[in-house]
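name: query_chain
kind: protein
chains: 1
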Amino acid sequence: MNKKLFETLRTLVYAVLIALVVRTLFFEPFNIPSGSMKPTLLVGDYLFTSKYAYGYTRHSLPFSLPLIPGRVLPSMPERGDVAVFKLPADGRTDYIKRIIGLPGDTVQMREGVLYLNDEAVPKEPLGTFIDEPSGREVARFRETLPNGRSYEVLDMVENGAHDTTRVFEVPEGHLFLMGDNRDNSLDSRTNFVGFVPLENLVGRAEIIFFSTDGSAALWQPWKWPFAIRYGRLLDGIG
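structure:
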């Protein structure tokens, strides 16, 4: 084999191995395809998740290869973390929501107010949020969890389908997660998602490294600079 070609192939193999190690052990990129986490995350946001934040499971590996039994170097998530996880129903689909309930907690929605362990979570009105791309004004609030973590949520519909729920008792080894866009989120309030096993966690969302509003197609490079949401670049996710 030509020496130059061999060196090129070896460099490519090294690059792929390094990328796999970084993706498996440290950081993995994800993009946001839906509005369930508005206003925290918008469609077109690209973010990094820390793979080491909660420990490692088979879902830390490419294609969720079953090479890691249980959890290795486990760490309990905190209420308020934004986390990527595999949908329990299929173990393949990536979802991103906010961790609300830990094992042993009770969670309930009552007329749009979140109750955690039978205590109302403070909900402060913040005016409105302009929803893209419709331009519709949506009620915006700030919730503050008992551990002091606060974040913004949207209330698009009064008395929505999941504004009042039964009491959910989070079983051991599981979490209760919700979208910040409360009326437009398939999350633990629904049977479709339900309680999420700790083993299904992929990582904690850390930072937005790129964001586009979708107004520029791939074949329109002259529009690319105008489609970037520059104000969201390198934003931390809280």
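note: Residues 142 and 151 are 6 Å apart (CA to CA).
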